[in-house]
Amino acid sequence: MDAITALFAGFETALTPINLLWALVGVTLGTLVGVLPGIGPALTVALLLPVTAKLPPVSAFIMFAGIYYGGMFGGSTTSILLNTPGESSSIITALEGNKMARKGRAAAALATAAIGSFVAGTIGTMLLTFAAPAIAEIAVQIRPEAKFSLIMLAFVTISATFGGSPLRGLISLFFGLCIGLVGTDLQSGQARFTLGRPELLDGIEFVTVVIGLFAIGETLYVASRLRKDKASVIKLEGNARMTREDWRRSWKPWLRGTALGFPFGAVPAGGAEIPTFLSYTLEKKLSKHPEEFGKGAIEGVAGPEAANNAAAAGVLVPLLTLGLPTSATAAILLAAFQQYGLQPGPLLFITSPELVWGLIASLYIGNVMLLALNLPLAPVWAKLLLIPRPFLYAGILVFSTVGVYSLNNSVFDLFLLALFGIIGYGMRRFDFPVTPAIIGVILGPTAESFFRTALQQSNGDYSTFVRQPLSAFILFIVALALIVPAVLKARRPSVAT
């Protein structure tokens, strides 16, 4: 009942005219960037961090949440009409949805994706409403040793999940941790990794790092591979709509996809990729029309899209209750919290209840807005795919440069932006995932703080991390996450022979 009372208070905040306007801006912008190939919610929120620094926190996060959910909605349009998944979680949607579109069923594919996203997003938000306060109450009692171990678990699992190589993920994480150490040590007052530059004494602005690695790096990577020929966009006639048979074949996959997506989004490194593939496999096994899979089965769009959006709601559980991001967008949202001097975690529900519950309430409102935007306006969003890529990415470059310069009016920040942009391009070029680096920059100082606090409370006894039961158990899981994949990979050739 306390959660319901708090949620109603959140609706009072979210339903004010100004916050409704920011929610509409967020979902519209999120759908737009979801439709445009190569631009996702993480990059968009990163670009907007400098611009929204002067906004009230509640309004800013309501807009960010709208962008997050809107990006998930809009990504299906690109996958279905262009056969270009903007993110790895949309690969399955592209596989079946584009086949449906080529058979003249683009409207049905877009409709089942939009309605499935609405159903999964709403159910996922309901689960978030009741799960987050319960987890927050438990998390208040977690000791610093266990909090440090939790961050270690997030580091290892995220590094192993993003990208094709766990080693590359760990190298990316190490790079981010090093960047996070730049500046003055708050306990000893000593300068670290500043190279004698006074501009680095306060550390490197995480906005500069994020925009450099994500926006500039992505722009350079796309520019280096831009081809003259235009992609083939399937035309969409009329609004997104479904027949009675489509409804009959879609509603169960929506529910099953939701059940798979939410828990995977809520665990460190769960993300949306695993549940979308699991949902696709499950629907193929349960379908009465297995012969249609690979040729345009509507269940292959409905289930994975629901799993994708349910995972988006699940990602907010560890972010709000523990301060742990489990996706790229969640990492940027964590940076946004820190920009406002807020630390997500169990105390956030006590210190900033208006922000937390206003944000959660806005997710319900945003889902309704997204459904209203996506079904009747699908042909309009489809036309955005015709925007020339050079114009699009040139605009991102300009917006990125102006945004970073506006933070401190510093030319030195622009040099750093260019440096991180080149590094981001190199990471994309050689298949090093960017997300572990971003999470290392943001969570590295927090992990160091918990580590030092635990040592101070134990008088410098390092064994405290294995003597505290919860910490020891989490570190055991960390060790398994590092060792088991390597052992399985080493045994694979001998098994094959």
TrEMBL record:
Any Pfam family matching the protein: TctA
DUF112 domain boundaries: 20-439
Residues making up the signal peptide according to the UniProt record: none
Protein's UniProt name: Tripartite tricarboxylate transporter TctA
Species per Swiss-Prot/TrEMBL record: Deinococcus puniceus
Superkingdom of the organism of origin: Bacteria
Entry's transmembrane regions: 20-49, 61-82, 106-130, 150-183, 203-223, 315-337, 357-377, 384-405, 411-427, 434-451, 471-488
PANTHER family given in the database record: TRICARBOXYLIC TRANSPORT PROTEIN
UniProt keyword terms in alphabetical order: Membrane, Transmembrane, Transmembrane helix
